[in-house]
Specification:
By secondary structure, the protein is of the alpha+beta class. It contains three helices and seven strands. The chain has one domain: 2-Layer Sandwich (Alpha-D-Glucose-1,6-Bisphosphate, Chain A, domain 4).
Amino acid sequence: MKITIETLVKADRSKVWDAWNSPEDIKQWNSAHESWHTTASTVDLREGGSFSARMEARDGSAGFDFGGTYTRVVPGQALEYRMSDGREVSVEFTERDGGVLVRETFDAESENPAEMQRQGWQAILDNFGRHVEAKG
C-alpha cells in the first residue's frame, strides 16, 4: 500500500530543495513531534548515494536510524529512494502559485496502522514547511 502526503511551502524551489537535502537543515525539521529530534544526518545526494538520520526522543528513552539509498535524483524536481527495509519513497517538488508543492509517496510498513503512518509523515512534512518558511 502506498501513502501520499503533501504540503505547499511558501518559498522558491531552490530554498525548498536545499533545505530538504542539507544535513544541517534536516536536523532542524526532521521530527514528527517536539519530544523527538534528529541528532545526526548525512546526505550523499546522487543516484546510488546514501543518506541517514538518527532520530531520538529528547528524554533519551528511544532512538532509531532512518536511512536508505537514492535511486533517482533530478535536482530541484524529484527524488526517489529505497529505505534500508526495502520500502520505496518518491518526493516531487512542483512549482505552484505561492510556492512549491512537496508531494511524498511512500510504501506503508506493516507494523503500524496506515493512518498513523500518514499522520506521522505528514507531521514531519509540515515541520519541514514551517522550517523553510521561517528561514525566509
